[in-house]
Amino acid sequence: MEKIDFFEKFNTFQIYYKQLLKDNIYDNGNLASYIRTYYIENNKILFHVSEILDLSVIVPKGNFDMYQKKFSEKVFATSNPYEIWLYACRAVLGEMHEKNRVCIYPDNPFLFFETGYYYLKRSVAVYVLNAEDFFPVLKLKSHFIENKNCFDNEWIANHNINPLYQYTIDRIPKEFTKYYDVYYLNNKSNVVYPNSLEELRYFRKNNMVRKIE
């Protein structure tokens, strides 16, 4: 029941966030403050997925942000429980390429599909974290004729984090593919990802990627 509550609270938070944007609250300081205050009071927890099980402390390390653009030493977390599925596959394979709900992996992260679940090639850890230890990350995005701050559920901390608890997963529900278009590369010797829908269509036409369905 608790895991179901993760999703329910996140969906409620999304309604709140969309109302902020509707109220035209895009200012960097105000938007981050509203998000953090609401989230700490109502949702309270964040998620960090790792290939390493049973960590008592999560240490900041050099890594790219969720867009694979900015490199820094931080602990990264997400407030989106649906993204746990994406990051679980990345923990299995070490990398992923994600944009606009299209996610591509260098290989197939799954062993097999059975009775509504994709079974991962290895178990991974989901660490549940205290949101008070983190700050939301805002990104500048094009909004009609101007750039405005937006929030994509990424949070960061620049200090050691003690997880509240962890759980281990070795499978992902099939509904994963309802939220994301998921592919993996066919050519393991040439790890090149498509950077647009047009390129993705080319990759699919030439059997360079396979879709997980």
UniProtKB/TrEMBL annotation:
Taxonomic lineage: Bacteria, Bacillati, Bacillota, Clostridia, Lachnospirales
Name of the protein this chain belongs to: Uncharacterized protein
Origin species: Agathobacter rectalis (strain ATCC 33656 / DSM 3377 / JCM 17463 / KCTC 5835 / VPI 0990)
